[in-house]
Design goal:
Layout lengths: L1 H21 L53 E6 L13 E7 L4 E6 L5 E7 L2 E6 L7 E6 L4 E4 L5 E5 L5 E7 L7 E2 H6 L7 H8 L3 H10 L1
Length: 218
C-alpha cells in the first residue's frame, strides 16, 4: 500500500510538473537562438540564425524612451518589445512593453493568451485590475502610484486606467517572447467576419440594434 501511495504521488508530481512546463515558452537548449525571420523553416517560434552571423544589434532595441501616441479613442498606447523587435529574445520566454496613457486614458480589458505579466508604474496614478475565472468572476483591483508593482496572472482579463489629469507611464514584463493580446471589445464586436448579431444579443442580453451599433464602432 505504501509503495502504491508513493507511486501515485510521483505520478501526480510528474503530471503537474509537465503541465507547468507546457504553460510557458520552451527553455533554450543553447546560449541563444537569434530569430532568423527570413527563414522558410516553420517552427514554434523562429528558426535560429547562424551563431557566426550574430551581433550586438540582435540583442538590443533603441527607442523605448520615446512616448507613444495616445491620440486614439481609448487614450493609451502600448509599445511592445518582443521577438519581432529584438531577434535575440527568441526562445528566451520574455518580452517588455511600454504603456503610455493620456489623462484619464484606458488600456481596455484584454488578455495575453501566452503570458503572465508584471506591471510597474513609473509616472502618474493608475487604477488596475483583473477578473478571476468563472464562476466567481471576482474583480481584484488597486490604485497604483509611481514605484508600485502589480501582477496580472496568466490568461486573465485585465485593464489599466489613468485616474489623473496628467500623463501616466508604466512598463510591463511578460513571460513570453510573443505574449499576444486579445482585446475583449475588439475581438467580440470587431471580428472578421462579424459574429452573428443574434448570438451576441443573446450572450450580452442586448437588443440586436445595440449589437449592430457596437459592431459598427469596431
Amino acid at each position: 500500500m505504501a509503495s502504491l501511495i508513493s507511486f501515485l504521488s510521483l505520478a501526480l508530481f510528474l503530471v503537474l510538473s509537465f503541465s507547468f512546463a507546457l504553460a510557458f515558452d520552451p527553455s533554450p537548449l543553447q546560449d541563444f537562438c537569434v530569430a532568423d525571420v527570413g527563414s522558410s523553416v516553420t517552427v514554434n517560434g523562429f528558426a535560429c540564425k547562424d551563431p557566426k552571423m550574430v551581433g550586438a544589434d540582435d540583442f538590443s532595441f533603441t527607442g523605448l524612451h520615446l512616448p507613444g501616441n495616445t491620440s486614439n479613442p481609448v487614450g493609451s498606447k502600448v509599445t511592445l518589445i518582443n521577438v519581432d523587435k529584438i531577434p535575440g529574445l527568441n526562445t528566451l520566454g520574455i518580452s517588455l512593453a511600454r504603456i503610455d496613457y493620456a489623462p484619464y486614458g484606458l488600456n481596455p480589458p484584454h488578455k495575453h493568451p501566452r503570458a503572465a505579466e508584471i506591471f510597474t508604474v513609473v509616472q502618474g496614478s493608475l487604477e488596475v485590475g483583473f477578473v478571476t475565472s468563472n464562476p466567481e468572476n471576482r474583480l481584484i483591483t488597486k490604485i497604483l502610484s509611481p514605484g508600485d508593482v502589480f501582477v496580472f496572472p496568466f490568461g486573465l482579463i485585465h485593464f489599466q486606467r489613468n485616474i489623473g489629469n496628467s500623463k501616466a507611464l508604466a512598463f510591463s514584463s511578460l513571460s513570453s517572447q510573443n505574449p499576444g493580446i486579445i482585446t475583449i471589445a475588439n475581438s467580440v464586436f470587431g471580428s472578421n467576419p462579424d459574429i452573428p448579431s443574434d448570438i451576441l444579443a443573446k450572450a450580452f442580453q442586448l437588443d440586436k440594434n445595440v449589437v449592430k451599433y457596437l459592431q459598427s464602432k469596431f
